[in-house]
Design goal:
This protein has 286 residues and is an all-alpha fold. It has helices spanning 8-18, 25-49, 60-64, 66-84, 91-117, 123-148, 153-180, 183-186, 192-195, 201-209, 212-222, 229-239, 242-263, 268-282, and strands spanning 53-54, 57-58. The protein has a two-stranded antiparallel ribbon. Helix 10 packs across helix 12 (229-239) and helix 13 (242-263) runs antiparallel to helix 14.
Length: 286
């Protein structure tokens, strides 16, 4: 928690709450619960991924050992529920959203782990995985904040749809930028996902579109560490149309997010800050 991070999930919870009036005391507890839960999942994800670093610092299990890492994550999840129990009014619907989301995040992480060894993963499977692993917590943050402000279920569901589609668009854009973005501007190596053989949207789309010779080339690149691997894979992404289709998918989910926000029964001026935040997240170098 001391290492910071974007804190985007608790911010979304508070912003959704503030749409309908002054921020309620319960929203602060919900936002804290969300951030505690998110960091709990990161601790356990790092253990599963055997990751040595998180936010540039040694991970919990690296510093204190595997047992401490598991138990630390467990305790953080309990602290999350301790805060959630203090939200006050509308505790039951908020708890239902939180619990459903917690289950989905675990399902998404399991799918992600399964995909590492799976030979065939469809584009639809991948979108489902990132929806569960990443997007639903963004969506739930908004819905919980809205419910605690006394919003109607219809408005809360529209904000959920906004967050869900925003999360999918952001991840797909991240996949695209890893392959085709400016490494200097992004602050990371171009083609890092390709070098790690990660199953990303452009890769899966390329396999879906590929001719038999192209598929053989892709699978040969995936099975080796040959020099020029990134350049060769990027060329195949272009030849199969996967790079353009990834951009189309980003625009599709972005538009769906903004349409859902527009449908929230609230003055546009009240929704302006959420709109600006979404634009900030999506208008990276593309």
């Amino acid at each position: 928690m001391k290492e910071g991070g974007k804190r985007i999930r608790p911010v979304l919870c508070l912003m959704a709450n503030e749409l309908f009036g002054d921020i309620t005391p319960g929203a602060w507890h919900a936002a804290t619960a969300i951030e505690l839960f998110h960091n709990f999942t990161l601790i356990h994800d790092d253990i599963m991924d055997r990751a040595p670093l998180r936010r540039g610092k040694p991970t919990v299990h690296e510093q204190h050992g595997l047992t401490a890492g598991i138990l630390c994550g467990d305790v953080m999840s309990i602290y999350a529920y301790e805060h959630l129990a203090r939200v006050g009014a509308r505790l039951l619907p908020v708890m239902q959203v939180f619990n459903q989301t917690a289950i989905q995040v675990c399902e998404g992480q399991q799918l992600d782990m399964d995909f590492e060894s799976a030979e065939h993963v469809s584009v639809e499977d991948y979108v489902q995985m990132i929806t569960l692993k990443t997007s639903v917590l963004l969506a739930a943050s908004l819905k919980m904040g809205a419910l605690l402000a006394g919003a109607t279920m219809n408005n809360a569901d529209k904000l959920y749809a906004f967050g869900k589609n925003l999360g999918i668009a952001f991840q797909l854009q991240d996949d695209y930028l890893d392959a085709f973005g400016d490494a200097e501007k992004l602050g990371k190596q171009q083609g890092g996902d390709i070098l790690a053989n990660k199953k990303t949207y452009p890769l899966l789309k390329a396999l879906e579109n590929a001719t038999q010779p192209q598929e053989q080339q892709i699978r040969k690149l995936l099975s080796g560490e040959a020099a020029g691997k990134v350049a060769a894979m990027l060329q195949l992404f272009k030849e199969t149309g996967a790079h353009e289709q990834t951009r189309v998918a980003v625009n599709h989910y972005s538009n769906a997010a903004f349409e859902a926000l527009e449908d929230v029964a609230m003055l546009s001026s009240r929704k302006a800050e959420l709109h600006k935040l979404a634009e900030y997240l999506l208008m990276r170098e593309f």
